[in-house]
Amino acid sequence: MKTIRTAAVIGSGVMGAGIAAHLANSGLNVLLLDIVPERLTPDDEASGKSLADRSVRNRLAGDALTRLSHASPAAFFDDSCAGRIKPGNVEDDFAALSGVDWIIEAITEKLDVKKQLLTRIEAVWSPGTVVSSNTSGISIEAMAEAIAGPMKAFFLGAHFFNPPRYMQLVELIPGSSTNEAVVAAMKTFLERRLGKGVVVAKDTPNFIANRIGTYGLLATMNIMEAGGYTVGEIDAVTGPALGRPKSATFRTLDLVGLDTFIHVANNVAERTDDAAEKLAFAVPDRLADMVRRGWLGEKSGQGFYKKVKEGGASRILELDLASMAYVPASPVRSASLDAAKTAKGAAAKVKAVLAGDDRYSALAWSIVRDMLLYAAEKVERIADSIADIDKAMRLGFNWDLGPFELWDAIGLRQSVTRMGREGRTVPGWVKNHLDGGNESFYVRQPARTFYVRSGELKELEEPPEQISLRALKAAKRTVLSSPGASLIDIGEEVACLEFHSPNNAIGADILTMIRKSVETVRNSYKGLVIANEGRNFCVGANLMLLLMEAQEEEWDEVDRIIRLFQNAMLELKRLEKPVVAAPHRMTLGGGVEVCMAADRVVAHAETYYGLVEPGVGLIPAGGGSKEMALRAAEATIDPDGDLQPALNRAFETIGLAKVSGSAPDAVRMGLMRRSDRSVMNRDLHLYEARRNVLDMELSGYIHGGPQSVKVAGRDGKALLTLGALTLLEGGRITKHDFKIASKLGHVLAGGNVPAGTAVTESYLLDLEREAFLSLCGEPKTRARMQHMLATGKPLRN
To answer: Which residues are the signal sequence here (predicted)?
Structure first.
């Protein structure tokens, strides 16, 4: 198999284009091909083009590239990624396939058409090139019949989930002739280069995730009809209460598209010889009727839900399946759902809802029971292990717990007993497992996890580079701990500071732990990583605490809090050992300031990063404004050059509370340095951060010491203020926005000093703190803080 540096995607529809975009995100050059159009568009005719023009012949792939560039959510990490995709067509550019390292088929889900394409590919195939199909359920073995020669050993299924950038799962499906080394190499490539979670599935209809997930959705609809439940009731039960996304059942179907879902369901029904399974995958009449009416979900404007505007406001109606009319949604409440809402963690939520005795608890049990029994019945047919099924459902359907993890959570023996009382048939291997004295499918130890496979416990293999803070804490590797943070020994003489406060918001407890961790690392470790395993790295400082002090006008206390934050960041920055911050997902405000204090940032590629304090009426005052002033000076190549362009950029980035769309985008925005790194695979994130600490230590890390910097001074400040005034007069910002911007400009420019004056970090921190305290005294700032805490959204006042 070749080293993959280039790829071609054939088919520029939603999936093909999305896959091409993510390959470009990973640094690959991609050829995107589609068929040649048969007719001109009105725009083509108006431009005097003919069917022979290359732009016309490449139109489908070219239009797909345009759509990708404007997609929401964004398909590309940043705008530069689009330049790695070259649009073409399958007539003029087909021979170019001989020069790529990976060919991906992503055309229509019709076996005969796919086989014809594979025959064409084989004619230009070069040895060692991997050829894969993105089919969601067609037999790989049936497709491989079209391949006569050695290409068959390099052909397999590689099924991405939509959208390819954001959905972590890829199912690899080898055929009987696929070389095992190719499967192993592709698994490694997908995990390391594309950041995917990979499961190897068997060549059965719909593979793993769509097989289990589709069954579960259809079973839920049948239970709904039998029990007389509404659309809203089903979604209230099948979302977070069962450890699943908020989109639950029917919002998920609307997002997928009801016509697409029916196609997936029919794929199993048509390919199975099992009468019971044919019945289970039969499409409900109501669903078929909706598709006949053109009610396909979000893409058609209505499905199980419909958004309407009334009196200038939007509201969501839900479909009453009895009358097929859209009606206002009614609140769904019960004791079991309330218990699930207050429970901590997915396992506790599911146990809480199942422990109730109301109709929603009964509904939840019926849905869970049927899904568990189906997964247990199919385990050996669709996958090599229960662990692969669990992983597929977590990554492909965003469940918090896979079927067998969920079964363990609710109690394996108790639930099987209940199933037996209800006359349900439990697969023999599950009964045998219990008869052997086992109480769960998984046995978890501090450093190892075992799972049942073929009647025996097998160790769950994980990459040696996968470092789990949870496992390390279970193995008693915690060095320091407090309610909000812990310092953990992660091996190789490196420590990790983990935040674990609510939302990982930074308060006095975490700031104290930062200072203690600095001292411990100084004396006992080679360096420090700052990372955590929360949903988001850090959403900022503890806004509630700050608001309470501001409302009480406890200005000395506010000043003390800000000094504590600033001093903690300075101590972090001045530690004589290398410090690496490893942010992921939402990293806002104070979270960015923590990263800016590190020597290097090793971010997960999906990091959304910004100094958003103006949204709550403030400016960054934990060193963020100071660091942006320093970086503006660093960006000026000539020490005596013009600071203003870089300063304007920093002013706009903070003033408009911009948030990056990815880690590479944060570099483009100037929020991260070009020397900072990004990692595609979240599971390998901590390992890469630790490796960067060790690399810096090994190369002779030298601490830079306190910095001084030349600032733009009063002249630069005047230009920044003028820019803000232009926005105010144009109605693009409010008067309070202007006040915030003026204070931000004062700090970034270094205050009222002559241009070119060299100032210290401490001087800039004093300016930060003074501006912050002044804004805390503004009623409109406090209103913004209250609104953010109440709604999670910024207030423009």
So the answer is: none
Structure tokens that stand for 302 in this block: 């209505």
Residue 254 zone, left/alpha/beta (φ > 0; ψ -120 to 50; rest): alpha
Neighbours of 51 (CB within 10 A): 12
| 3-state SS assignment for residue 592 | helix
Total count of domains within the chain: 3
Kindly state whether residue 455 falls inside one of the protein's structural domains: no
Check whether residue 506 and residue 422 sit in a common domain.
Answer: no
Contact 408, 375 (CB under 8 A): no
Q: What are the C-alpha distances in Å from 446 to residues 403, 462, 475?
A: 23, 14, 5
Secondary structure of residue 104 in the 3-state scheme: strand
Q: Is residue 213 part of a domain?
A: yes
Cβ count near 717 (within 10 Å):
24
What does the DSSP 8-state code read for residue 530?
Answer: E
C-alpha 369/C-alpha 381 separation (Å) is 20
Give me the count of residues in the chain: 797
d(CA 355, CA 241): 12
Q: Omega into 163 within 30° of 0, i.e. cis?
A: yes
With contact defined as beta carbons under 8 Å apart, do 622 and 565 qualify? yes
Cβ distance 354 to 362 under 8 Å? Answer: no
The overall average pLDDT reported for the chain is 95
Q: Are 653 and 669 in contact (CB under 8 A)?
A: yes
Q: Which helix (H) or strand (E) holds 389?
A: helix 386-397
Amino acid sitting at position 628: M
* Close Cβ partners of 777 (under 8 Å, ≥ 6 residues apart): 550, 553, 555
- Are 68 and 213 in a shared domain? no
Buried/exposed code over 381-409 (b: 16+ C-beta within 10 A; e: otherwise):
ebbebbbbbbbbbbbbbbbbbbbbbbbbb
Helix (H) / strand (E) containing 325: strand 325-328
- What pLDDT, in 10s, does the model give residues 747-793? 999 999 999 999 999 999 999 999 999 999 999 999 999 999 999 99
CA distance 504 to 509: 11
Residue 106 vs residues 28, 256, 261, 792: alpha-carbon distances, Å: 18, 17, 18, 39
* Domain, as residue range, for 397: 209-302+333-429
Which amino acid would we find at residue 410?
I
- Give residue-wise pLDDT tens across range 481-535: 999 999 999 999 999 999 999 889 999 999 999 999 999 999 999 999 999 999 9
Q: What is the DSSP string of 158-172?
A: EEE-SSTTT--EEEE
229 and 181 within one domain: no
